[in-house]
Amino acid sequence: MGNILGRVLRLSTFGESHGPAVGCIVDGLPYGLPVDLADIQKDLDRRRPGQNKLVTQRKEPDQIEILSGVFGGCATGTPLALMVRNTDQRSGDYSEMEKAYRPSHADLAYDLKYGFRDHRGGGRSSVRESIARVAAGALAKRLLREVAGTSVLAWVESVEEVGSQVDPDSVTEEAIEASLVRCPDPVASKAMEEAILRARGDGDSVGGVVRLRVVRPPVGLGEPVFDRLEAELSKAMLSIPASKGFEIGSGFAGTRLRGSVHNDPLVPGTPHPTLTSNRSGGIQGGISVGSPIDARIAFKPVATIASAQTTVDRDGNAVQLAARGRHDPCVVARAVPIVEAMAALVLADAFLLQRARSGLFTPPPHEVAP
Question: Per DSSP, what are the bridge partners of residue 27?
């Protein structure tokens, strides 16, 4: 019921923000894949709260535990269970939210759907659930590296009105991680930090855009007609809390071009033709063609802010709500590893599905009717 992602590589997540733990079960991971705790912990450390002055100051070590599915440092092919225990909860900070709805948060929606909700930190709607996605995504990234040399990178492209100018082909993980806001443009990074700190000082929040780039993706991923690869990526990205938009390749800007300009020319290549431009974002007809997969994901300003807002309570009374607690003034820096994880999970699942159907028979030669 909405808690499972994938068809061959299946991810199921569990847990709430202020429960004992959060985690996941990953089923369908190929046996023999090396599983390195340090790999998983590295990405969790990039996502965790309290890592610098720009994010929520909740102090969680987010230490990963493997409960099953690994032996001798490799996946056994059986369900692999991962868990992170919650250690720094302050549920009392959310007492006002037990009845008052935060504007633009999931509070009202959960009450409308279920008739009650876990108000402590947002319960299941909290971004803390994304721990499970990042942990599973580290496994998916390892799989893609091992089988195809695929690199999955994301970085912050803009915050509020501050944009960056970088050559996407030159961006490295080192340059991304050298920035507190995870923007590889040093000048823009500093301006973004200042914008985030101004918003925090005002008791407010700001949004931004995360850029995704997948280099050397396997070809042939994606299923006609309803499971096109960009559709699967879009669903995965828009499932991330606070995400509000997804575009691939030229996106909305492509609507201002003519087809003669927008089309990506084909040239001979080995082992298949290549593109001289990439306005399609590496996906044509819903299927990957080997060019880098290039996308952008928009994240709204965080709904939970310290400034007083007019809202209503569960009894329908108008009230003022100024949120207490430790909240992100901007989510984009911590969203970067989540975006990478979701992209890797979608691509790894599509790769395993494609591998399962290929290689048994040789198609007949193409024939053109007279």
Answer: 10
Instruction: Check: CB of residue 337 under 8 Å from CB of residue 47.
Output: yes
93 vs 324: CA distance, rounded Å: 5
Q: Following DSSP, what letter does each residue of 281-331 receive, concatenated?
A: TTEETTEE-SSPEEEEEEEPPPS--SS-EEEEBTTS-EEEE---S---S--
How far apart CA 22 and CA 333 sit, in angstroms, is: 21
pTM across the whole model: 0.94
Rounded to whole angstroms, how far apart are CA atoms 282 and 48?
Answer: 31
pLDDT in tens, 116-146: 888 776 778 888 899 999 999 999 999 999 9
C-beta atoms surrounding 352 within 10 Å = 20
pLDDT tens per residue, range 318-353: 999 887 766 789 999 999 999 999 999 999 999 999
Residue 82 near residue 67 (C-beta atoms within 8 A): yes
Taking alpha carbons only, the member of 292, 274, 281, 284 closest to residue 251 is 281
Type of residue numbered 351: F
- Which has the higher per-residue pLDDT, 14 or 51? 14
- The pLDDT of residue 359: 64
How far, in Å, are 33, 56, 64 from residue 157 at the CA level?
A: 33, 21, 29
- Rounded CA-CA distance 228/221 in Å is 9
Domains present along the chain, CATH in parentheses:
4-355 (3.60.150.10)
How far apart CA 27 and CA 8 sit, in angstroms, is 8
Digit-coded pLDDT (tens) for 68-82:
999 999 999 999 999
Tokens matching residue 180: 């507190």
Closest Cα partner for 64 from 124, 95, 22? 22
Strands (E), 164-237: 208-215
**pLDDT cut 70: percent of the chain above it:** 94
Q: Please count the CA atoms within 13 angstroms of the CA of 301 that sit on its side-chain side.
A: 14
Poorest-confidence range of 68-77, 87-96, 142-151, 259-268?
Answer: 87-96
Question: Average of pLDDT values for 145-174?
Answer: 97
Q: Which two structure tokens, joined as six digits, stand for 300? A: 């709204």
Total count of residues recorded for the chain: 370
